[in-house]
Amino acid sequence: MKEYLARCNEKVKSLLHALCFLGPSLIGVAIFFVIPFGVVVYYALIMGPADDSFAGLRNFIAVWNNRAFRMAVTNTAKFTGTAVPLAVVLSLLLALMLECRIPLKSQFRTFFLSPLMVPVASIILVWQVLFHYNGVVNEFIALFGVDKIDWLKSDYCQIVVILLFLWKNLGYFMILFMAALNNIPQTLLEVADVEGASAAHKFFKIKLRYLSPTILFVTILAIINSFKVFREVFLLTGEYPYEGLYMLQHFMNNMFIGLDYQRLSAAAILMAIAMIVLIALLFAIENWFGRDVEG
Amino acid sequence: MKKWIALILAAVLLLSCLAGCGKDPGNLANGSDQSGSGSNQPGKTDQDKDDNEVPTGFGYKVEYVDFELDENITYVQNTCISGESIFFTAGYKVGTETSYYIDIDGNEVSYEYDISETRLFKMNILGTDLQMIEGYIALKNEEGQQGYSYIERMYPDDNGGLWAIEQRSLSIFELPEDFDPQTQSEWDFWTRDENSIKVFHFDSAGLLVGEREIKLGENMYLYNYMLDSAGNLYATDGMVIYAYGENGEELMKLESEEYLDLIQLSRDDIYASIWGEEGRKLKKVDLQTKALGEEMTLAGTANDAWQFYPGFDIYQFLYDYNGRIFGYVAETQTPEVVLDWIDCDINSNNIQSFGFLEDGRIIAWEQEYVENSNVPKYSMDVLTRVPKSELPIETELTLACMYLSWDLRTEIVNFNKRTEGVRIVVKDYSEFNTADDYNAGRTKLTTEILSGKVPDILYTSELPISQYGGKGMLMDLWTLIDQDPELSREDLMTEVFEAMSENGKLYYVTDTFSIFTVVGNSNLVGDEIGWTLEDLLEAKSMLPPEATIFGEGDTKAGMLEQCLYQNMDSYIDWETMQCSFDSQDFIDLLKFADTFPLEFNWDDYDYSYYESEYTRLKTGKQMLLRASIYGLETYVYYCALFDNNATFIGFPSVAGNGNVFNVNDGLAISATCADVDAAWTFVRELLLEENQNSEYVYDFPTNRKVFDKMVEQWMTPRYWLDPETGEEVEQPMTSYWLDENTTIDITHMTQEQYDGFMELYHSCKTVRGYNQKIIEIILDETEIFFNGQKPAEETARMIQSRVGLYLAEQG
After folding, report:
1. Per-residue pLDDT reduced to its tens digit, A21-33
2. N or C: which end of chain B has fewer CB within 10 A?
3. What's the maximum distance between 2 C-alpha atoms anywhere in chain A?
4. The complex's ipTM?
5. Residues of chain A neighbouring B806 (CB-CB closer than 8 A)
6. What is the phi-psi region of residue B663: left when phi exceeds 0, alpha when psi lies from -120 to 50, beta otherwise?
7. Which residues in chain A are contacts of B471 at CB distance < 8 A?
8. What is the bridge-based pairing of β-strands B131-132 and B108-124?
9. How far apart are the C-alpha atoms of B420 and A53, rounded to whole Å?
10. What is the mean pLDDT of residues A3-17?
11. Residue B556: which pLDDT band, with cuts at 50, 70 and 90?
12. Cβ separation of A66 and B798 shorter than 8 Å?
């Protein structure tokens, strides 16, 4: 019994020691993440700023039935569904290309990384110069007799933003893939060469398997960045853009400005749930796909 | 040992998280009482504290001592508290003059009017022992002279006496012996100007003990007169600072490269105040070195203040800002509120002067204008600083505003004075605005509301009342009107409030309104109120092609914006949150706006061709007039302008009615108000007959009885008897000068005109207003269209998409 108590005492002491060291981080996380999220949940469950009575799912239903919210969800899904796979595939292709022995390899790498160093305001300025109604692109296509297109206020609007997204992110993702490619055991590839495996076979059966954690990581990163594209869209087109560019963050930003914290919070929670499900799904796929890969 | 080191390190890490929670070391060092209670220091000195916050723990007990002045004193000008006395200059009736007019029966009637001169007086601080100071004589114009003198500034001396600085300006004429003032102007015989400054020194008994005169150059006009403790006089002409010694000799002539004013923070701290791109900079005027000192700025609201007073105790100086007295704490160089007049039930608009007595009491002289009386009401308010616990406990209702109007301040003071148990406490959020962010105050209010700190009453000026109402933050005032035992909907101009209502809910009430419309000649536009764009264009086709619809300065964007102000509801169904900006009507409106010039620059306008709107209307060069009908006089005026053939047709609109109400700022009650009955008692006063009866209200009253009285007054003609013909002639209510050759007399309102006005009134169904966001979207989209690069249909489609999105969000 004494021994048991001593062991318990030791465990408590150990826990206290751990808590002392974890304390600052825990307090920080609580103050900056847990408590604000709790406040968001609270706001989503009350009637309004002047009426703090329990609203149940009223705010969630109101958000779900809101035409602007649905449009924002659709646009965001369309954009993420297009831009993220494109970003993953293109950056992987670029990484594979730079893995080959090609001239000006270093220059290419720098070229693809350079958008990371350009401030957002400058990027916006360049895109405005390019895609404005009186911009360079329209001037250029006019040379071929094509009528002017209002790129940011037409059905082409998402293409403009996808181009911007890819231009800005491909370099970074490419570097991540290059690092992952370097970590693939060379012995396996040599064995495959000895056994006469084709390049495609090596890619799909060995490289892709070993790249799967990086693919997952890049995909998550791309999804997060696809949500962040609001910043560029907002600077390009303001609070109320053409319908095709209206993203979830537009909805939330405008709810914030419009003092509608209830719907803002409800939308944030719905979005968080969707993100959790999506990322869990990605983890499940990655687990299944890379299940027989060591490490 | 390792464990202990680990524990200490962990503790240090944890404590570091609390590093930001400590008090300012400076405050701990100076030992000031944070709560304020038990301290002789008036207010807190913590640097972190918002300088707009009134120190808690203390309040003021106020004794109001009413007093009367000599009946010959007509108006008080300058005042100065010195010791136990108040010195003041005032107009003093020295005689009367007689004039004549002919009455309705043709008799010559004489009437007298007062002749006043400026005099200096002295009385006890409680308004007793009034004494005229004989030693001061204002400038009197001799024959061949014309001029004035004015006491610009007064200072107390250390013995209860007074220093007074007087400015004199005199024009000298050499009039011929046969000068006839009826046919000649003395300015034709002007020879020179004489400008001077006189400094008088009186002792505590009011005896003149010193006097000096400083002669100024003929074209030298100085201002900002100041006196330091040594008796040296400072003044400026904006570019040069002058200082004169005790004998009137020039001590300094300091030239500046920048335009400046002088301000006096304390008796010997005179600064040049220079405005630049980054706000106000101060440079101390140094008489010793005859130069300006280092550039400095004052903290907080002090840098925007103009009225400074000598400091006391911990305060380097005091200053007046937005109805409050702030003290500038010498040690921390930060301002803090010493006194908020409104909290003491004193109307800062009425304060003639105030001062601090040696025992710490504050004395304030109030002069309140009494309507329909020549004699103001005077009172001396004695404020004694006491712990708040000694003051009566009252329910406090917070009134949030972005600006406190003169009338509202008066209303609040009067309400607080006569109501026991409840008081309105004002929080003016405009004080949180900064030079970088003019909306900082509004943002702060909104943030506070969202965090649950909702004020009880809101003054609607500059506040997004619709937005607050839509979020359920405001009470529906119809319910309070309906429950009110003395006030009902029938007592009000209900149509105005119905137009102000949103989804049947009235979020605020106001005391006045006007009507915004468009007037045209009935022969041209027809005699029915309301029309469509098509009707307008059809009517215009009857005028010469060069005729304009309105004045000459209208632009494409401006015209579109104006049409939308009156017509937004034609394109938006606020109940279903659907819009129809892609409709043919809106496309037509875009095309209509496109017929106006893209830009108009009055700077390039050739004024030699300028014609008044009246002339342009008469000659068919202009079709319509925009009109704001803010009184029956303006309605009758527009009728007269069109020779009683006017149609108040309104802006063209889809629904055929473009007349709207324009309502003034009002009061709203929050849904979380602590005491709705008390708040309503205050807010309803806006609507009462007695409060809308003032002769100084220019718009239409929202109280029906007051409106009816106004109608009755305007429908009753006034006559006078023409002495030449012996006939009774209607006396015009007022006259308007239209152009070089035309003046129109406005007489009483006829029954026909009254009916016409009521028809106009009833045609208004909405309140003039605009949704900034929608207007922004529309103007953004039309820019390319107005430049001729996009068709109207495409522009309308884009507007429909973007505004539709905005509305969908609100739904």
Report:
1. 888 999 999 999 9
2. N
3. 93
4. 0.84
5. 240
6. beta
7. 48-50, 259-260
8. antiparallel
9. 33
10. 84
11. very high
12. no
